[in-house]
Amino acid sequence: KAFIGHLDHICFYDTGSGDDTITLAKKHLTDDASGQEHYEVVKEKDMEDHDKYINIPPVCSNIIVEGYWDDNFSAARNRALDYLLEYDVDWVCWGDLDERLTNPYRMKKYLKGDLELYNGFRMVQYQFLSDIPQNTRDYPVRLFRANKEYCFTGLIHEQITKSLNEDIWPLFMIPPDDMQFLHYGYMSEAIRRDKAINRNFAL
Fold first, then answer.
1. Distances from the Cα of 57 to the Cα of 14, 52, 126, 170, 177, angstroms
2. Residues near 84 by Cβ (< 8 Å), separated by ≥ 6?
3. For the segment 156-184, what is each residue's pLDDT rounded down to a tens digit?
4. Nearest in space to 122 (alpha carbons), one of 182, 175, 177
5. DSSP secondary structure string, 80-137?
6. Three-state secondary structure call for residue 76
7. Are residues 158 and 135 in contact, defined by beta-carbon separation less than 8 angstroms?
8. Cα separation values, 85 from 23, 82, 91, 143, Å
9. Is the separation of the CB atoms in 66 and 13 below 8 Å?
10. pLDDT by residue (tens digit) across 84-116?
11. How confident is the model over 24-58, as pLDDT tens digits?
């Protein structure tokens, strides 16, 4: 929700969630006053569907994709990226629904002037842990130049890169007090163990 109003285009890519992700996405992209829907919906069940749809010019500024899960986080993100690149965008910012971006209105100031020479921007990501006193953090590239050479790599904890063994460069680190991602997906040890055993080991 924090992205809406600060980005020209949004792609929600759902990999078959069992909650109300699609319903909420539609709600947030519908004008409360007029009821006008600012999105189109695409349903794809495999890569053949995906290849067909991304060659159709978008008819709305935002897209909701009822996609599929093929045991690869990077593959799902790359499919979402394919849709965004159909809009001929200049920059891409990515996030998950169990995350929150602070101060999204500050994003555009990094995309002009001297900072425009960078191809990507790192942001601090805080992992909130309710059962451990100190939250952990990392610094992924969250905002990057739209470039068809760039892709997500890694089955788990995927990162945007130029290729499998080549990072995007040059990069700029956005100060944590300016913008940061807050991740709530691993709030307890029980959740972390469940994802590690039932998901990560299998992948």
1. 20, 11, 37, 32, 39
2. 9, 11, 92, 146
3. 889 999 988 899 999 999 999 999 999 88
4. 175
5. HHHHHHTTT-SEEE---TTEEES-GGGGGGGGSGGGGG-SEEE-EEEE--TTSSS-EE
6. helix
7. no
8. 24, 5, 9, 14
9. no
10. 999 989 999 999 988 999 999 999 999 988 888
11. 999 999 998 999 999 999 999 999 999 999 888 89
Pairing of strands 141-145, 151-153: unpaired
Is 132's pLDDT higher than 70?
A: no
Residues 6+ apart with CB under 8 A from 111: 90, 91
At 26, which amino acid appears?
A: K
* Phi, psi of 99, rounded to the nearest 5 degrees: -125, 160
Token code pair at residue 119: 């191809």
Q: d(Cα 124, Cα 102) in Å, to the nearest integer?
A: 11
What confidence category does residue 7 fall into, taking pLDDT thresholds of 50, 70 and 90? very high
Q: How many residues does the chain have?
A: 203
Task: Tell me the C-alpha distance between 18 and 7, whole Å.
Answer: 27
Token pair 């990392």: residue: 138
Tokens of 179: 């913008």
